[in-house]
Amino acid sequence: MGDLVLREDSDGLAILTLNRPDALNALSPHLFVELREHIDTIADQTDQIGCVILCGKGRSFSAGNDLKAIQSGEAAPSRHFQAETLEAIEALPQPVIAAVQGHCYTGSLELALACDLMVCSENAKFADTHGKWGMSPTWGMSQRLPRRVGLLTAKELMYSGRVIAGEEAARIGLANRCVADDRLLDSTIAMARSFLENSWFTLRADKMLVNQGLNFTLGDGLEFERAHSPGRGPDLEERLKNFGN
Question: Which of 35, 41, 133, 237 is buried deepest, with most CB atoms within 10 A?
């Protein structure tokens, strides 16, 4: 272990890369352990890291859960470790963008859904194949997919297991945008950089308020925002001084 997930930092941006290209970045338990270590570290680095990109090396984001690793006896540290790792990604203070090319099936789709946003390439292929194997979701598919694409579309995708391409993913709201294959990482970095130009304090506040507000009705959510908005950031005065320059 030690190189299943790579991390590269540059001017406030952390890029995490799933690094099992020969196995289409299949999500083995060992890979999840490394991913969780990176996530837990980044969570405490809000002064150094303002945004995160999660991507996969090679021709696929990830083919999904590594059934061969599980069959060989490889095990996660605890029963729900993978699901809890996805929750840790969702709970990161910083925005997280998934950059998806090639395969993004089932467990890897659940991983991508734990990210705040998604940019996909034209060759991306998304599917929930739980039904093809007689399995049921435990990593969040039944909750995150309907919230992302709507109830009817989510049910149709889950019931059918059909594969959709990048353009359809963007059209139904699964991805923010679909770009040419050779522009995927550049386009995702450009999106992240546009966020980093704004207040990192506000990025964290927006993510917290939106994500936690989803747990409430509209009325209760409005009250939550008034009660828990962090207010003015430490960079407000400096930004006002630079206004118009």
Answer: 35
Q: Rounded to whole angstroms, how far apart are CA atoms 78 and 200?
A: 33
As assigned by CATH, the class of the 5-196 domain is: alpha beta
Which residue, among 26, 29, 171, 190, has the nearest Cα to 99 in the 3D structure?
A: 190
The pLDDT tens digits for 161-202 are 999 999 999 999 999 999 999 999 999 999 999 999 999 999
The predicted pLDDT at position 47 comes to 96
Dihedral, 32, 90, 145, 55 alpha carbons, nearest 10: -50
Spatial contact of 30 and 4, defined as CB atoms under 8 Å apart: yes
Give the residue extent of every domain in the chain: 5-196, 200-241
- Residue (of 133, 109, 136, 130) closest to 120 by Cα position: 109
Model pTM above 0.90 = yes
Strand ranges of the sheet holding 125-127, from the earlier edge strand across to the other edge = 103-105, 125-127, 164-165
